[in-house]
Structure formats: structure tokens, C-alpha cells
Hints:
Strand content: 35-45%
Radius of gyration: 20 Å
Structural class: alpha+beta
Distance between the termini: 36 Å
Low-confidence stretches: none
Shape: elongated
Oligomer: single chain
Amino acid sequence: MSLTAKVSKVSVTSNQKDLYILTGKLELIDDMGSGLTKNYSCEFRTGQDNDATTLDFATKMIEQMNEDIQNYKDCQDIFNSELLNKAIAVIQEGVNQ
């Protein structure tokens, strides 16, 4: 299964001075043209070391996205498994009686 990941900016919002919520989007496309689309948000404070803040923001987003990508892969492995195919065949057979 081949996956293509695309990350893009979604929004920046603020509820108080110097505190912003940055939102990015992950689009994960598989061989069938479907997949996962999910938004991720993290806090960003101005007035701090921008390089460290950017790295922290990026690291958090990468970790969250990689967890969801691995979960998607695990789900697809089960979906495409012979065990699930057999279970569906047994269910189909039971329904047709």
C-alpha cells in the first residue's frame, strides 16, 4: 500500500494577547484515492524564542500525524487481511440461509 501525505496550513486564531492556535491539515491518500484527512492544532506564543517555538510546534505536529498515519496503516492491514475476508464470507453465508 502506497501512501502520499500532504500537509498544509489551515488557520491561525487568537483568544488572548500573544497566544495563538495554529492549525494544520494532514491529507493522507492511498492507492485507491481515499484515506485520511485530519486537522491538528497547537498553541503558539509570541515573545518567546521563535526557533525553539517553531521546532516544538513542528515536533508535536509530526508526532501526532505519525501516530495517525501508523493507526491508518494498521487499520488497512486488518481491512485487507485474509482473516477479515473469511469472517465476511462466513457472515454472508449465514445471512443467505
